[in-house]
Design a protein that fits this description.
The chain is α/β, with parallel strands linked by helices. It folds into 2 domains: 30-155 and 245-284, D-Maltodextrin-Binding Protein, domain 2, CATH 3.40.190.170; 156-243 and 286-339, Bacterial extracellular solute-binding protein, family 7 (D-Maltodextrin-Binding Protein, domain 2, 3-Layer(aba) Sandwich), CATH 3.40.190. Helix content is 49%, strand content 17%. The strands form 2 sheets. A 6-stranded mixed beta sheet has the order 7-6-8-5-9-11, with helices on both faces. The protein has a 5-stranded mixed beta sheet with strand order 2-1-3-10-4, sandwiched between helices. Helix 2 (49-64) runs antiparallel to helix 11 (260-295) and helix 7 (184-193) packs across helix 12. The chain is globular. The termini are far apart. One of its GO terms (biological process) is transmembrane transport. It comes from Lentibacillus kapialis.
């Protein structure tokens, strides 16, 4: 009889363990090797409705894939600001990113049309455009830059807030330094209102307000509150001068590398997350407005006559930017046709 050496015993033990793990994996479902993990980065606070929508998307993907696709969410600019995460996604360094659409105009000037003052006057118009032909055109265009559009979280209408004095009509902004995004349209809006537009990165706005680098900004109630900007603001004017959607994109190559089933899971989850998030966003915006009031911020709602002043003051922005190479006239017409209105309907009494 051959002598059983320690080496032989050890080898047999290893074989037994490997065999046992293989059998167990048949009953345990997906192994680590079966799981795909992606990252999504964006800059908004984790409590913001856009962030909640992205969390919901990740939750739905994990549920529909039975845990085989995991999406790790990074909010608060943890892995980069809007521009950084979008560029990282385009390169494929991360799989997903989210940004407000004004910061996406470098990829397609169709978003420039979305920025036109008062092209969207209520949420119903926003959703009709995004879910219809105007949204489909943007989806196709973004693929040319290497992105697959997953869904459009509801960001909200921008209001004008400041820490200098009450603002009721455009002339009250005369000479005021107002922070804007990099959107040329938004900068032109504030020039038309008589203010001095000052583009500043979102991460720097609180300090800029605190130190007097700027006197005000334009943003949604929910984002302002969740970012604690109420601490450096005193007045708000509800003029809805601009609607900003967010956009969640995936690196196109990574998306196309997935199986048809996995792609369906991603897209279905995006659609369901968007529908869920819209309800959350609208409810949260109303709550945040009340929080502003309770905090002591003076919120002013213009009369119909005053709202017409705001609209007519900004009409010149259309004259300047609705042209080829900027807000494409043909695309603007498609939006207006989809909404069933004309430019005259927006700016006339």
């Amino acid at each position: 009889m051959k002598k059983i050496t320690p080496i032989l015993v050890f080898s047999l033990l290893i074989c037994f363990i490997i065999s046992a793990e293989a059998r167990l994996s048949q009953f345990a479902g997906a192994t680590d090797a079966d799981v795909i993990t992606f990252r999504v980065g964006q800059s908004k606070a984790a409590s913001h409705p856009v962030s909640l929508g992205i969390d919901k998307f990740a939750e739905l993907v994990e549920e529909k894939s039975n845990g085989k696709i995991i999406i790790e969410t990074y909010h608060d600019g943890l892995i980069g600001d809007d521009r950084e995460v979008i560029e990282s996604t385009q390169r494929g360094s991360i799989a997903f990113a989210s940004s407000s659409t004004p910061n996406m105009t470098s990829f397609t000037n169709y978003f420039t049309a979305w920025d036109l003052p008062y092209i969207f006057e209520n949420k119903e118009e926003v959703y009709k455009a995004i879910d219809g032909k105007p949204g489909d055109i943007v989806r196709d265009e973004m693929e040319k830059s290497g992105f697959k559009v997953i869904f459009f979280p509801d960001y909200g209408f921008r209001q004008i807030v400041n820490n200098r004095h009450p603002v009721k009509e455009p002339s009250d902004l005369e000479g005021m330094k107002v922070r804007t995004t990099n959107s040329r349209i938004e900068q032109a809006d504030f020039e038309a209102f008589g203010a001095n537009p000052t583009p500043i990165a979102w991460s720097e706005v609180f300090t800029a307000l605190q130190q007097g680098t700027v006197d005000g900004e334009g943003n949604s109630y929910s984002l302002l509150w969740d970012s604690k900007h109420q601490e450096v603001l005193s007045y708000a004017t509800e003029v809805n001068y601009n609607y900003s959607s967010d956009i969640v994109v995936m690196n196109k190559e990574k998306f196309e590398a997935l199986t048809d089933e996995q792609q369906d899971i991603i897209m279905e989850s995006g659609q369901e997350a968007m529908e869920w998030q819209r309800e959350v966003a609208n409810k949260r915006e109303a709550e945040a407005k009340q929080q502003f009031i309770d905090f002591g911020i003076e919120v002013y709602e213009p009369t119909e006559e005053e709202m017409l002043q705001w609209k007519q003051a900004s009409e010149g922005v259309w004259d300047e930017y609705v042209r080829e190479g900027y807000a494409e006239p043909e695309y603007v017409d498609i939006i207006l046709e989809t909404l069933g209105k004309t430019r005259e309907d927006i700016f006339s009494e």
